[in-house]
Amino acid sequence: MTATGDLARQKGRSGPSPAVVPVLIFAPCLIVYLVLFVWPQLSLLTTSAFDKGQLSGVHYVRFLGDEYYWELLGRTLLLGVCVTLITLVLGVPVAYVLARMQSRMAALLLILTTFPLLVSAVVRSFGWMVLFFRDGIVSNTLQALGLVDHPLQLMYTLTGVIIALAQVLLPLMVLTLHGVFKSIDPDLEFAAMSLGASPPLALCLVTLRLARSGIVAGSLLVFSLAISAFATPGLVGGARANVMATAIYEQTIEMLDWPFASTLATVLLVFVLALSLLYGAALDRRAKSESVA
Questions:
Q1: 180 is a domain residue
Q2: Residue 147 sits in which domain range?
Q3: How far apart (Å, rounded) are the C-alpha atoms in residues 32 and 29?
Q4: pTM exceeds 0.85, yes or no
């Protein structure tokens, strides 16, 4: 009887059941996620869906009926696509070379790629402003080389914003792809070349196919950061290259129209989520079709 009582007391002091332990472990993360992400997003949606204290879609009707905001959204998405393509074209070879490099300089070169991330976005933008003005270094250099006949000003243009954002976000693409290429065994490329494939063909058929998920992740990361960037488009682009982020700032700070600013932010968020889901679904569908084949 005593042994039974001791066993019962030991079970009572054994702590929570195994099913409760994961809940207790992830509870702090869940609370932080709900407070810092879910609640602000719900507040954003609520603010955009109400007008003068009543549920209304007047702000979305205003957005859908104005060509200016559709042009603004298109310019923002074009900015994200161009920056993503530039960083992808430049980042893939750089990340591949650094991942395959056996020298001790590889780590140093990888650290050097992160230097733009250590500088404030405002400072970087002012640096590009000095370069992009009509009498700046870029214009004078192009004229000295005979590539242009008249002073070239990239300030307050979408092209200048694309170049500046690509320089800022290129390290993120390189860092993302470097880890992916590093995890792929180089012997797989040698095996493909031993079967008759040329080095470029082996790179395309083996390495890039295996790194597809990392390429998608890096592309989505750069795209989402590019379309939501504010400091660089605001300083380098100005009013002539206005994007969604700068329009949201204007509606919030200058116009004090918080409901419509929330509407713009919600529309931008929906487009990003939709593109991300479509991108991921297309990738999964292709992977399943290749596995079946």
A1: yes
A2: 66-292
A3: 5
A4: no
